[in-house]
Structure formats: C-alpha cells, structure tokens
Amino acid sequence: KSSLASKHKDFVETNGIVEYKGRVYVPRDSRLRERIVRAFHDTPVAGHPGRHGTRELIERHYWWPSITAFVRRYVDGCDICQRVKLRHGPLAAPLYPNDPPARPWEVVLVDIIGPLPESHGYNAILVVIDRHTKLVITCPTHVTLTSEGTARLYLDHVFKRFGLPMKWISD
Predict the structure, then answer these.
(1) pTM of the full predicted structure?
(2) Given the DSSP bridges, would you call strands 124-130 and 107-113 parallel, antiparallel or unpaired?
(3) In this predicted structure, what is the pLDDT of residue 71?
(4) Are 11 and 18 in contact (CB under 8 A)?
(5) What is the rounded CA–CA span in Å between residue 63 and residue 4?
(6) Is residue 95 part of a domain?
(7) What is the Cα–Cα distance from 106 to 167, expressed in whole angstroms?
(8) Same domain? 125 vs 78
(9) Cα–Cα–Cα angle for 8, 11, 13, nearest 5°?
(10) Are 153 and 112 in contact (CB under 8 A)?
(11) 108-132 pLDDT tens trace
(12) Is 94 inside any structural domain?
C-alpha cells in the first residue's frame, strides 16, 4: 500500500493504482501530466475545449494537486486556442461615425502604408484621400516619416493643388 493511501482517507490503492475520491491520482511528473492534458485537449475528438472544458474532462478520470493551474498554463500556451478563441468585451476604443463633408477637400484622411519592400530608396507610402470625392493621392516615403515630414509632403504634393482642408483625420 502506498504511503499516500495509508496516510489519507480520501486516497485508496487498488492493484498498485492510487485513487483520490474515485479518480486516478497522477504523481508529480510534469511530462505525464502534460501527456494527459494533451490527450484531453489537443486530439481531434477533444477539439481544444478551453480551460474549463479540458479540466472538466480530465477530472472525470484523474486528479492531482493544482490541476486547475496546470491546465490553465497549458491552454494559455496553446497556439491554436489563442488564435481562434472568442474575445469578450471591447477590443479597441469605440468607433464613432463622422459626418460626410459638404464639399471637396473639406475633410482628408491621411495614413502611411508600410513597411514595404524598398523601392527606389523608399519603404512606405503616404496616402491622402479626399472624403468627398474619394480622390487618392500617394507619395513615396519612409516608415520613419515624422509629423514635420508629413506636413512637408502634404504641402508639396497636395496643398499646392487643392489647398488646406478644414479637417485632417489620421491615426
């Protein structure tokens, strides 16, 4: 009889297998415990049931101290679970619609696309869009473009043709 089974009334040994409240006790062997979690979590039949579901499936047959924390660490480290898990609550600041402009070049949208593969010494594109006409103007630039550089590109490529907008929207 194991020392564990002889010391605690909730542990029983039968044919060399120690049980705790009717479930197989898993000794302190992290590789064995991980194999058990993998069997109840990663297999196509299990289908990555998450923290609670995995623990519930395991606890039908096995037990060890801190099983909840062990399963949590395993599931939190599962690449597939992290990529497909549903997110609850807001992921970003709420978006509010802005009113459509009444005339061309009243409101412009400005953004930088990049980094891109380098071409002719540039690795990004400054994009300016008129919200009213949807006209797009692009300028080659660098991802390290400063606000002063953005203003310079705007003056050189947009302002000279269309003037200064009432509103400038950018992230």
Answers:
(1) 0.49
(2) antiparallel
(3) 96
(4) yes
(5) 14
(6) no
(7) 6
(8) no
(9) 125
(10) no
(11) 999 999 899 999 999 999 999 999 9
(12) no
Structure tokens, 50: 């998450």
CB atoms < 10 A from the CB of 57, how many? 17
Q: How far is CA 106 from CA 74, 147, 159, in A?
A: 53, 20, 12
Is residue 111, in this structure, part of any structural domain at all? yes
Please check whether residues 78 and 112 belong to one and the same domain: no
- Please give the structure tokens belonging to residue 36: 């058990």
Domain-embedded: residue 70: yes
Return the ∠ at Cα 60 (arms to 57 and 64), rounded to 5°. Answer: 95
Q: What is the CATH number of the domain that holds 165?
A: 3.30.420.10
d(CA 141, CA 108): 19
Identify residue 102 by its one-letter amino acid code: A
Is residue 8 located within the same domain as residue 62?
Answer: yes
- Tokens in use for 15? 């044919």
Record the tokens describing residue 66, joined without a space.
Answer: 């801190």
Distance from C-alpha of 133 to C-alpha of 74, rounded to nearest angstrom: 52
Query: From first to last of its 171 residues, what are the pLDDT tens digits of the chain?
Result: 556 656 677 888 888 888 888 899 999 999 999 999 999 999 888 888 989 999 999 999 999 999 999 999 999 999 888 888 777 766 677 777 878 899 999 999 999 998 999 999 999 999 999 999 999 999 999 989 888 988 898 889 888 888 889 998 888
